[in-house]
Amino acid sequence: MTAPTAVLQLDHITRHRAGRPAVTDLSLQLDSGQVLGLLGVNGAGKSTTLAMVAGALVPDKGSIQLNGKDFVEHPELARRAIGWLPERAPMWPELTVSEHLDAHGRLRGLHGAALAQASRKIIERLELGSLARRLAGVLSQGQRQRLGLACALLHEPSLLVLDEPANALDPVQVAALRGVIREQAAAGTAIILSTHLLAEVTAACDRVAILHEGQLRYDGPIKDDDHRMLEQTFFDIAMRGDENSDRMQAA
Amino acid sequence: MSLPLMGVFAVTRLELRRLFVRPLAWVLAALTLALLAWRFVLLLGGFLASQIKLAALPGGPGYTDLVGIPMLSSILTGGILPFGVAELALVIVPLLAMSTLAGERSNGTLPLWFAAGLPASHIVLGKYFALMLWLLMWLALALLMPLSLAHGVTLDWGKLASASLGLLLMLATLAAIGVACSAFTTLPAMAAATSLTLGLALAGVNLGAQMAGVGNGFFNWLSMSDHLESLLRGLVSSADVLWFVLVIAVALALATQRLASERERG
User: If you count DSSP H runs as helices and E runs as strands, how many of each does chain A have, helices first?
Assistant: First the structure.
């Protein structure tokens, strides 16, 4: 087994939105094969953080290293290395599912036979075959999420960024999503997913970071027996902005 | 193909696909081409009716002057048939361009382009090229009407080529303005309204100067119809071509700047 390597390194990144600090002095590292759950209440800065990691936003301060290279200076690195499922999976409503995969593949540098093969593979894997010719505009939210996930995975990125991936999925689809996340992690993909569902984090992640008011308040591994402790820590931070989230550290 | 070109090509391809599956593009094409066909029939009828009179005039206007050029614009002819390709373009280009970036913004898909590692310039250029390809096809179909009789009439190929170049430059300018307006708003309708207003203003900014008898002032230079008129008359001057290129460059640079700052500002 190969030793994990740092895929993503955030160094003191800060980002303002609408004149207010959305993320402040955030530092994180994510290794290959690691699944990091980003927890936080609404407005905690999760989506802003993920948008910066995905390359859709530029940090005001700080640096982002992707596979050891400065990603802020070279946003083109995102092209092949990152797969991103934004919140609510935005789509072009007039294009079909297969046209979406084709477009995303081309935007991510896939062409010809490689693109066709990657599309076939991901359609089969995420069971999108019956939807392939359906317009994205008529898909249910759950189907959109699956299509968004397919677009994010299509080019086999080394970093997968998932913003609320379980939104609108039924329990069967949630279980399937967890399966996909585990498979990707086993294949060495670094995964960062944001959610406000504790169960999602404990089921799919091996590490958790809790954001509150744009700041990282907790970052640590998840063990099998500390779910209640995680829940208590999350509520301590979310309700009281508790800086002394020592329970998990001690555990 | 180099990586930057591949990015632009990928955007163009996707945008063109989206244009072709939207009913708006087809409806606009059908309606405007029908209107132009009707115009062509009327112009041809007028030309045929005045054959005897025209034959008596040595060096008088021919098929190109009476049918070919008036099909493209009514700037030179005026009269009761106001809607040539140029006049229709003032309306349809803003409608086609309105969603290029504003639609992406309202859809929430704009960040997907940024996240693909594409610089703002590639996104803007890719979308602009797609729009231009659609407009080129539309112009070609409009030109086919007068050209369909080329075997039976004497065409002034030079004048028609110059006028077609003028129309092409006008379409390219309006498209660039449309893309720029679309870059500054979330609402496609707002982009269309702004772009239409700017197009009309550029086309008619010299009217006041003309009425005042000023033929060579700043407003005349600023006016798109002034530059188009020379090309419609068959006079290709680098100053006119440069005017169009300048407006296109400024509009696309503004769109690129706006998009780049959006990625910066969020």
Answer: 9, 10
Structure tokens at A79: 């092209």
CA B173 to CA A211: how far, in whole Å? Answer: 48
Q: How far is B18 from chain A (nearest CA, A)?
A: 7
Q: What residue numbers bound the domain in which A16 lies?
A: 6-87+158-250
Pull the structure tokens for residue B44. 């041809």
CATH number at residue A26: 3.40.50.300
Does A26 fall in a domain? yes
DSSP state of A4: P
Contact at CB, A77 and B117, closer than 8 angstroms: yes
- A129 located within any domain: no
Residues in chain A: 251
Does residue A126 lie in a domain region?
A: no
Q: What is the pLDDT of residue B4?
A: 65
A112 domain residue, yes or no: no
Cα atoms in the 13 Å half-sphere on the side-chain side of A89: 27
Structure-block tokens of residue A65: 């290293």
> From B263, which residue of chain A is nearest by alpha-carbon distance?
A57
**Is residue B162 within 8 Å of B234, Cβ to Cβ?**
yes
Q: With contacts defined as CB-CB under 8 Å, which chain B residues touch A82?
A: 115
Provide the strand spans (E) within B87-243.
Answer: none
Alpha carbon distance, N-terminus to C-terminus of chain A: 29
The gap between the terminal CA atoms of chain B, to the nearest Å, is: 31
pLDDT in tens, B82-131: 789 999 999 999 999 999 999 999 999 999 999 998 899 999 999 999 99
A185-214 pLDDT per residue, tens: 999 999 999 987 888 888 889 999 999 999
Beta-carbon separation of A103 and B10 below 8 A: yes
Residues A168 and B234: their CA atoms lie apart, in Å, by 62
**b/e code A101-140 from CB counts within 10 Å (16+ = b):** bbbbbbbbbbeeeebeebbeebbeebebeebeeebbeebe
